[in-house]
Amino acid sequence: SLRDISLRQGISLLYLEQIFSKLKKNNIITLLILTTTCIFLNAQDNSVEKKPEKMLIEGEIVGLACYTSSGLMGSEHKSCAKRCLTRGTPAGILDKDGNLFVIAAPSPGYSAYAAETIRLNGLVIDGRISPDKMEIVNDKKWEEISLVGGSPKSN
User: Fold this and answer.
1) Is pTM, for the whole model, over 0.70?
2) Angle, alpha carbons 133-53-143 (nearest 5°)
3) What is the structure's pLDDT at 104?
4) Burial class (CB in 10 A: 0-12, 13-18, 19+), 38
5) Over 80: is that where the pLDDT of 46 sits?
6) What span, in angstroms and rounded, lies between the C-alpha atoms of 47 and 45?
7) Alpha-carbon distance 57 to 39, whole Å?
8) pLDDT band at 23 (very low <50, low <70, confident <90, very high)
9) Contact yes or no for 92/60 (Cβ under 8 A)
10) C-beta atoms surrounding 155 within 10 Å
11) Are 98 and 62 in contact (CB under 8 A)?
């Protein structure tokens, strides 16, 4: 109802009623569009703030530009991904279920791990991970890599 929309969105009920009244008189199509927009806004619950969740993500390091535009990944794309990450193209980690997470850290440090499977541990919110721990496989065992500002330390 208009009252619910008014309360949830912080818009004056009188104002909404005036708008709907004028729209009813002038143009039903506009009314339908506005109604749909109000329903959409009403469905969004802004009162619940998302909190970061601590997660461990295991997956392949990808260059976001190539992966999101063309689906490029894997060993056949490794050299291109390395170049892109070195130049600062954002890095992502693609898990085994196909979920893509943006790595919220400087990407050049991840260039050495392009197309490699790694583990990142950190806070995740809205598809972004802020890593505080990274591991790679070395001799069939997970080995921790030092991070500086969320990015692997350069040698």
Assistant:
1) no
2) 20
3) 92
4) buried
5) no
6) 5
7) 36
8) low
9) no
10) 4
11) no
Q: How close are the terminal C-alpha atoms of the chain, in Å? A: 61
Compute CA distances 123 → 8, 53, 85, 141, 144, whole Å.
Answer: 29, 5, 22, 24, 17
Write the secondary structure of the chain as one string of H (helix), E (strand) and C (coil): CHHHHHHHHCCCHHHHHHHHHHHHHHCHHHHHHHHHHHHHHHHCCCCCCCCCEEEEEEEEEEEHHHHHHHCCCCHHHHHHHHHHHHCCCCEEEEECCCCEEEECCCHHHHHHHECCEEEEEEEEECCEEEEEEEEEEECCEEEEECEECCEECCC
Q: Give per-residue pLDDT as tens, 67-97.
A: 887 787 888 889 989 998 998 888 999 999 9
Beta bridge partners of residue 128, listed in sequence order: 102, 125
Opening angle at CA 57, ends 56 and 61, nearest 5: 145
